[in-house]
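Weekly structure sync, notes
Attendees: PL, DS, HV (note-taker this week)

Item 1: Sporulation integral membrane protein YlbJ
DS walked through the input record. Source organism listed as Virgibacillus massiliensis. Sequence as pasted into the shared doc:
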Amino acid sequence: MTQILKTILFSSITAFIAFSLIKFPDQALEASIRGLNIWWEVVFPSLLPFFITAELLISFGVVKFIGVLFEPIMRPLFNLPGVGSFGWMMGMASGYPTGAKIASRLREEQQLSQIEAERLVSFTNASSPLFIFAAISVGFFHDTKLGILLAACHYISNAIVGICMRFYGRKQDKLSKKHKGKVSLTAAFHEMHQTRLGDKRPLGEILGDSVINSVKTLVTVGGFIVLFSVLTKLFFLVGLSSIIGIFFEQLLQLFSMSPDFALPLLSGLFEITIGAQSISHVNDTLLIQAILVSFILGFNGFSVQAQVASVLAKTDIRFAPYFFARILHGVIASILTIILYKPLYLDKQAFDTNDIPVSISTSDSLWVTILNQLAEIGPMVTILSLCAALIIAYRKRTDIR
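Item 1 (cont.): predicted structure, written out as tokens:
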């Protein structure tokens, strides 16, 4: 009976989306182009180097080297082997879904158990500094100092989530082994060397596989970005957003927030960029805006969650712990925003008014310059990378034949 209900539900939702696309073709095309532009101008060129580098570092044993050195830190804090530090650092530097990509690769390499991989995924899918400072703080709010507050709350709460998730699955994770060897550069180098020797692929094949795997993942990510951009627009056009927004209005009123944030918050739960931009346009106090933006950054949005789910689908890593951690991350980040708003934003504002804001304008222009350069060269990088991946895949297939 349950399977029949699922069949009816899934088919009904798909039919409804198809009907909406037919009814609103122009608006759907506009939303699709918007999502595609975000992907090929910024997302693809900014994430591709991190993805390829991560693949190479895992293949050459560098991640194993890092893992041995960071074992004394990662195990007590997060109940994870040292290799988890690589996913944590790369996830913070490059943004989602890098953390999920690295966790799935480490799981495939048997460097993490299932429970350990689920712990790692729960706190390594953070937003990148480029997105927080350039897109949200400068692009939407025109205030880089707000980026300091948002980034601090986002990354501190992310670490707190990791500490909380260390208790997840302790009874089930019987296969987890603590590093018993002496932590030293010699031991770390030995592990790295043995890992490299264990990979029998020639250098050219390793490079080709790294490019192809990274491009495949990013193409899937692009599909989800376009899909959720269209879905968000369709929900608004058919009136579903307004209906669901009534519930959010009541919820916001419980926390003494303006009901005008209902629709922007709902949009942010689906797609972070649209939600953050909509929140910045609501005429209310900056503190309330910062709290809601911190929440949707921590929650990741269903679009990012779908990207993570697609990356994890080929492994035995379950999605439920990651989803629970997203809610926890959003709540903790919102609370930290309230606590740190005065010391990290108001006090800094008062201090900066008495000084010449030379450094501020420099930091403002830095993030904007990076974002603008990505937008300019991003499409060319995307096209060339896709062509390179196609050539490598074609040659591999030819060699097999």
